[in-house]
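It is worth pausing here to work through a concrete case rather than discussing structure prediction in the abstract. The textbook approach is simple: state the sequence, then state the predicted structure, then interpret. We follow exactly that order.
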Amino acid sequence: MYSLVDCNSFFCSVEKVFNPGLEGKPVCVLSNNDGCIVALTPEAKACGLHRGDPIFKVEGIVRHYGVKVFSTNMQLYAAMSQRVTNILRKSIHHVENYSIDESFLDLDGYERYYDLAELMKGVKERIRLCTDIPVSVGIAPSKTLAKMGSWFAKRYRGYDGVCMIDTEEKRRKALSAFALSDVWGIGRRTLEKLNYHGIATPLEYADKSESWVRSHFHKPGLQTWLELNGVPCIDTAEVRRRQSICTSRSFGEMTGDLRALKASVASFAGSCANKLRGQGSVCSSVTVFVSSNPFREDLAQYANSATETLLTATSDTIEITQAATRCLESIFLPGIDYKRSGVILSNIAAESPLQLSLFDTNRKRRERKELMHIVDNINARYGVKTIHLLAEGTGKQSWHVKCEHRSPNYLTDIDEILTVRI
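Step two, the predicted structure:
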């Protein structure tokens, strides 16, 4: 059996942890540059707000209902996510983080000694007591069904936060009540194809014969069908190893300064390299793209990209940043007010075994790998970008995203630690 632990409205829940007065009130968190709503509480949804709403279009609703608005603070959210993970690892032997607010737990063998539903209710309660983060738990024979279970646990109070799909009757009932478009692994094109064949519910798909599924879909479609029938076959570690990694943001202010653009590209390259190491991968292709503001028709328009292929695949921040900087210099055009830049890493493979090049100029790969490991550990402990390349710049810069409503980094910055007045 597998379990999925999903933190409810995670970004908003973290903000409420440090602002107890927000309990029961509408709260929403904005995207980069305070553009759109990316997370909101049920109270905010009841006010008529939706995920993806541009904040400037719903300012009237925000003011009328007194909705509390926060800028995204990934440093704070990551620190709280790590605390939740630590509790899970102390409770269950095998824990796999799928995202910042979701973790899969392998409960194989635990059923011999525990009632699985009661076991996970205990874990859920420990998380609440230690972090005040509400979670929903799904338990099922496959990870896809476990995600369904967490969805039901979140929306129906009768489950007390834990929904267990452990019988054929429960499985068929869950599949018949679940939206086909919300099934993990079914994207837009797959959904269109299923609807074309007259399939409207997950149950109808699960009831199809294996030969029919094989004749109409490739491996992902077959895996989803097996998972819906309670056969575990999706390796989430493989799913998480992305084929490309991109970090890109619109600037808080437009800039035509090459030095500022280099700082933005260096910062994005560092973030991409960190993600690459986090999934145990290396890349051999670095792409940089820049663009002006397409909505400013009164300004000169420009967009371009460049790619550099590395001799030896790497996850070294220094190598990737150097390649990204060279790409930027090759496409930079003076006299343009740039609004956006980004870095894409592709041709991704597992870091071991690593194919070296005869013409490789880096003779200290082992030492540099150890250095990156040390840097990652320090940044994980003391906060993202605690240690970074000087090329990323220091202090507040024009290209930094707007975050006028950002809450303090209570857990990672001693200067912003929570103060309690008695």
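Step three, interpretation. The mean pLDDT is 89. The CA atoms of residues 17 and 31 lie 20 Å apart.
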